[in-house]
Amino acid sequence: MPPEYLDFEKPIADLEKKIEELTLFTSSGSIDLEEEILKLHKKSDQLRAEIYSKLTPWQKAQISRHPNRPYTLDYIEAMLTDFMEMHGDRSFADDPAIVCGMARLDGMPVTVIGHQKGRTTKEKIQRNFGMPNPEGYRKALRVMRFAEKFKKPLITFIDTPGAYPGIGAEERGQGESIARNLFVMSGLKIPIVTVVIGEGGSGGALALGIADRVLMLEHSTYSVISPEGCAAILWNNGSKANEAADLLKITAQDLFQIKVIDEVVEEPVGGAHRDPRRAAELLKEAVTRNLAEIRNMQPDELVRLRYEKFRTLGTFDQI
Q1: What 3-state class would DSSP assign to 36?
Q2: In this predicted model, what pLDDT tens digit does every residue of 245-281 receive, in sequence order?
Q3: Which residues contact 304 (CB under 8 A, 6 or more apart)?
């Protein structure tokens, strides 16, 4: 897949374009420019590392939405084996915006649920741009109960702008479906590890996020509202998304500091989309390690600690 550059990556894009031009010139046999190309590669790597070491929250939000960023099915293919997808909510329909199924993590049976976006225009429409309808959450709920019944650890991948806000979705009980997932997940007597791999938008994300361990990829975001939505409400001006992103504390680093999440998972320099295979290796190590730490805990203890974890989020100031 050809690289797609964000606005703040323009200096990197210019360098890599020059490298490509010199490489083509060298391959024609006219002149050997290998030494100059190596210098430019080194300069490009240094520039990328420098830019990515001081990203703003708004820039991280842009990276979390990058069209080449790995999605749930990409991580399932890279991290797990024997994946068998399960479909339908046994009530209304199947929702392609959420994928669920059984798989193995290094031979260990697990259950996996995640939001799924599309890459092509056709896939994006089919997956509804990663915004689930109520039947998607009810499908996830069915698989959660399946996982508990057969005592299979649950891994969830969060990557959604939010639950679909359409009229039909509201008529079919969007709010209730999300609330039901929150309620049931909080009491599941199995180990749960959640990873925010891209966007974590509002209740649509949280419906898969009541876990014993909540991880975030380094350049993912997790918030109650998008920066654009926040800016439209506060200032009646969506173009102030940059300012809103600073206020919302949406980055993995901010959320780890205030103890909303448990771990920040490193990404390759330049983001997960620059090296999906390495990103999957790093994520698999983190998921496996966290799952191993809670896998043998007693079910009642898991539920008790999960309850305490979410009850203690936030701060309370008494005047």
Answers
A1: helix
A2: 999 999 999 999 999 999 999 999 999 999 999 999 9
A3: none
Measured between alpha carbons, how far is 95 from 203 in angstroms, rounded to an integer? 17
Instruction: Supply 73's token pair.
Output: 């099915």
Q: How far is C-alpha 3 from the chain's CA centre? A: 20
| Residues 14-23 as b or e (16 or more Cβ within 10 Å = b) | ebbeebeebe
Collapse the DSSP code of 295 into the 3-class scheme (helix H, G, I; strand E, B; otherwise coil) and give the result.
coil
165 burial level (CB within 10 Å; 0-12, 13-18, 19+): exposed
pLDDT at 47 over 90: no
Cβ-based neighbours of 145, under 8 Å, separated by 6 or more: 184
Query: CA–CA distance from 180 to each of 188, 203, 206 (Å)?
Result: 12, 11, 11
Sign of CA dihedral 258, 297, 266, 274: negative
Copy the structure tokens of residue 243: 């300012």
The answer to whether the Cα torsion of 258, 262, 267, 272 is positive or negative is: negative
CA distance linking residue 21 with residue 261, whole number of Å: 44
Fold of 61-311: 2-enoyl-CoA Hydratase; Chain A, domain 1 (3.90.226)
CB-side neighbour CA atoms (13 Å) of 281:
5
